[in-house]
């Protein structure tokens, strides 16, 4: 067995340690910039084009990537570490480099009518607890849903109101009211979806089928079906004697609850001004248009009167002259004005020649 000196072992250990330090130590002229949140390393040093041309390009790029990765790993090990399930993990800081998104940012949903009203009136949403005290069972129960507290649908006895029909089924009436509330909430939900998706609209009133629909209901259903096309019924064929449907839209229009308060204020001030004024206000444009319509109607009446008068005189002259037409009568004459034998002459005496 060959003897090994202690100096040789120490020298070999120092050499191995230097090799290890050489593997994890990288020298750069300019410091590499790091974004540990994105695990990003930016090397600002110039690329040695001579080394790329002289040596193997693939080997040079591998060596450069290895050095920069080693610097990034050294920075990660400087962060505080912890052990989770036999694994050492570090908590990365917030990212400082903004990276482009793969997809566009989702658009914010349009607020519902209640959200707009609450924002206008300053109503803030208060979070309610999920559990409430049930006085009947003397314990905490859920506020909503199955086995909720103070559930009136589980009552076996219902008091009949004084004004209600004593023979009516109160349980069925309560169940129908609940179904109506559920349907109303669903309709409001669909309206909110339609408002927030490309300006779509949900009809306010639908056409419910009946056993014996009337003529008006059938006509309205036909016109609604024609207007349900992409062209809003513009290119739909019409029946030979089909009439245009009237009053298809809403008859009355109300001002919205959420709108321009300045316009409403001006409108109310104008009403107060009219009520306070002693002399009634006159719309000059409306008065002039009314006067023009009356003058036009009077002129049209005069023209019709003169036309009818002239037409009557001409008809009287025709009766005295040639007669109403050239039709042949019982005789051979062409008219009473000539020397024919139809109504005048020898036939008038009563003797037939």
Automatic annotation (TrEMBL):
Query: Which spans does this entry mark as compositional bias, Basic and acidic residues?
Result: 235-247
What is a biological process (GO) this protein takes part in? endonucleolytic cleavage in ITS1 to separate SSU-rRNA from 5.8S rRNA and LSU-rRNA from tricistronic rRNA transcript (SSU-rRNA, 5.8S rRNA, LSU-rRNA)
Question: Nucleus: is it a keyword of this entry?
Answer: yes
Q: Which UniProt keywords apply?
A: Nucleus, Ribosome biogenesis
- An annotated GO cellular component: preribosome, large subunit precursor
State a single Pfam family of this protein.
RRS1
Extract the coiled-coil ranges from the record: none
Q: Which PANTHER family match?
A: RIBOSOME BIOGENESIS REGULATORY PROTEIN, RIBOSOME BIOGENESIS REGULATORY PROTEIN HOMOLOG
As for family, the record states: Belongs to the RRS1 family.
Protein name per UniProt: Ribosome biogenesis regulatory protein
């Amino acid at each position: 067995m060959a003897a090994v000196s202690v100096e040789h072992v120490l020298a070999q250990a120092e050499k191995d340690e230097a090799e290890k330090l050489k593997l994890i130590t990288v020298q750069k002229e300019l410091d590499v910039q790091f974004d540990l949140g994105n695990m990003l390393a930016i090397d600002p040093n110039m690329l040695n084009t001579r080394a790329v041309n002289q040596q193997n390009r693939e080997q040079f790029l591998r060596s450069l990537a290895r050095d920069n990765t080693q610097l990034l790993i050294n920075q990660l090990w400087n962060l505080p570490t912890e052990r989770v399930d036999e694994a050492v993990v570090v908590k990365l800081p917030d990212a400082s480099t903004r990276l482009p998104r793969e997809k566009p940012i989702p658009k914010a949903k349009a607020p519902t009518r209640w959200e707009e009203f609450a924002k206008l009136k300053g109503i803030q949403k208060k979070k309610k607890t999920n559990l409430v005290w049930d006085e009947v069972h003397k314990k905490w129960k859920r506020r909503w849903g199955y086995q909720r507290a103070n559930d009136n649908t589980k009552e076996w006895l219902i008091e009949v109101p004084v004004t209600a029909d004593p023979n009516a089924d109160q349980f069925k009436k309560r169940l129908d009211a609940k179904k109506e509330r559920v349907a109303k909430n669903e309709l409001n939900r669909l309206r909110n979806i339609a408002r927030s998706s490309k300006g779509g609209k949900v009809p306010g009133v639908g056409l419910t089928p009946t056993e014996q629909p009337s003529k008006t209901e059938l006509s309205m259903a036909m016109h609604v079906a024609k207007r349900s096309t992409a062209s809003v019924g513009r290119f739909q064929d019409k029946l030979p004697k089909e009439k245009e449907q009237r009053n298809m839209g809403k008859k009355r229009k109300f001002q919205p609850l959420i709108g321009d308060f300045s316009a409403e204020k001006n409108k109310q001030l104008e009403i107060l001004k009219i009520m306070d004024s002693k002399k009634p206000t006159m719309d000059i444009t409306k008065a002039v248009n009314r006067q023009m319509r009356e003058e036009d109607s009077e002129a049209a009446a005069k023209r019709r009167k003169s036309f009818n008068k002239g037409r009557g005189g001409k008809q009287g002259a025709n009766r005295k002259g040639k007669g109403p037409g050239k039709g042949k009568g019982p005789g051979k004459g062409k008219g009473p004005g000539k020397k024919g034998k139809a109504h005048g002459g020898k036939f008038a005496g009563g003797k037939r020649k």
